Amino acid sequence: MLVFKLALKNLLGAGLRTWLNVIVLSFSFIMIIWLKGLLEGWDRQAKNDMIKWEIGAGQFWHLSYDPFDPLTLSDSHGTIPDVLSDSVKSGSLVPVLLSQGTIYPNGRMQSVLIKGISPEQEVLALPSLKLKSDDIDIPAIIGKSMAGSTQLKEGDYVTIRWRDKNGTFDATEIRIAAIFDTNVPTVDVGQVWLSIDKVREMMLLPGEATLLITDRKGWQSTDTDEWIFKDQETLLSDIENIIKAKSFVGIIIWAILLMMAMLAVFDTQVLSIFRRQKEIGTYVALGMTRGQVVKLFTIEGAMHSVLATIVAALYGFPLLAIQAIRGISIPLESKDFGIAMAAKLYPVYSLALISGTVIIVLLVTTIVSYWPSRKIAQLNPTEALRGRIQ
Amino acid sequence: MNNEVIINIEGLKKHFPMGSGRFTALNGIDLTFGRGEFAGLIGPSGSGKTTLLNIIGTLDVPSEGKAIILGESVGNLSAGASASMRKSQLGFIFQSYNLFQVYTVFENVEFPLLLQKIDAPKRKKMVLDALEWVGLTDKIKSKPAQLSGGESQRVAIARSMVKRPAIVLADEPTANLDAANSHNILQTMEKLNRELHTTFIFATHDDKVIGYVKRKIFLFDGKVVKDEKIEKN
Q: pTM score, two decimals?
């Protein structure tokens, strides 16, 4: 306890030197927490958006469906089995029928993925009600990115061409009924959403679907011969892998920030031991053991991070809280990253993140404080008293 | 002074490595000190007086021979035991005061008592007593940087005396002081020696100090060349 009191007294007594270190260290604290919070917020948002816009709580896939092989799409459909038809009727399973097609916006040609979904569905965040047809025309909805690349606007008509189940080409005009804004490129880029009834009619596939999206977790695997259940975790595995790759970069940045902060503490400790030799000798002359002096200097170094935590909390808490509430604006071009990314990111600062960062910084500070302090144990007190550098 | 021997040095030698050879700082010292002595180790630079003081202060160990301090052989003391002896029985006064710059006068004097874990009320009384001995009760909240050289050395004396040690070792205590302050300091120490029967041993070549000590031990090239006691009234 005495050593703690002395260490605190020495630190506070050192004035500006201490506070400069503490402020630098507190910046590192805030930067580390901010960076990790931002990545965490991004990850969480990406996952939530994927669930909200595309994945739902899980999906049944037709046996032949392979999202990475568009050539198999023409065979990836089947009738909904009896065990699932009640859930489809109640709306807790949303069927989606996929097909390849081509649109001709403004005289250009573009391949698209035609997706049919029930206008009444409430599982995904798509504005599917806009797909309700008045039989005058065929309403379609597209995402903002798709609208941007095709230069289509709400109310525009565009020709769409497809092949039915027999391989016969057909074409019609669709009306862009709505343009939705989503962060999930996999429901937006290169895709046209139509009513599933219309797609079934176009494809000559009544009552069929490519996949069924569930509205809640807890679906037991009710695989049939033709349908395979994919839970949410499986469907999120791709984004999890991207997050892992991103986390690795985050760890490197985190390590650099931590190293910069530790360098400041290490530097101060090394300087202290050379500059305060007489003081060290005096401590020993007055009856402290060398071990106690090593402890004193180590605690002094480690206390920088304790003070930095307090200082960081004073200015960092409101700063980070404002960001967590108001979010951080991200330029629109950032959608080019290929994963769900909102125009605003909301950092997530969990208790585990904050306490983990504090503990790690405290531990590392203690180690880098102890490292140079060990030299004290080798110091000859009679030489130290004279302030002779050894 | 009584006849109780508290320091007994026999055949003491101290060598330091120097290049490929060694330098002999003390070369066969035989000395005894009784309780309450006011003695000076006198000699030019390199005569071995500071080395001898360091061994008596358990900051260093003999290369040969023995040094028994308060019944303990310095060469056989563990690090903890020697620290414990310094903490409770030995006081140090240094040429450049060696005060802790970030502490106040009160805190500097209090420091040895904190190490001894003496409770706060008793500690406060002991610190105030020590500061009264050296006439600095009006400076308790000052920092060393705000004190003159003489005042700083008086704080150092108070710090060395606050725990009522058996022995105080003073290495060139007046080297950085003017004549008036030197006399003031020496009178203070003489008074404490008289009233508290603390043994004072000085390492010095300052005539002012030599004028005050009651025993003059002259060292030259690591040997005692003269040991004379002066009877003073």
A: 0.72
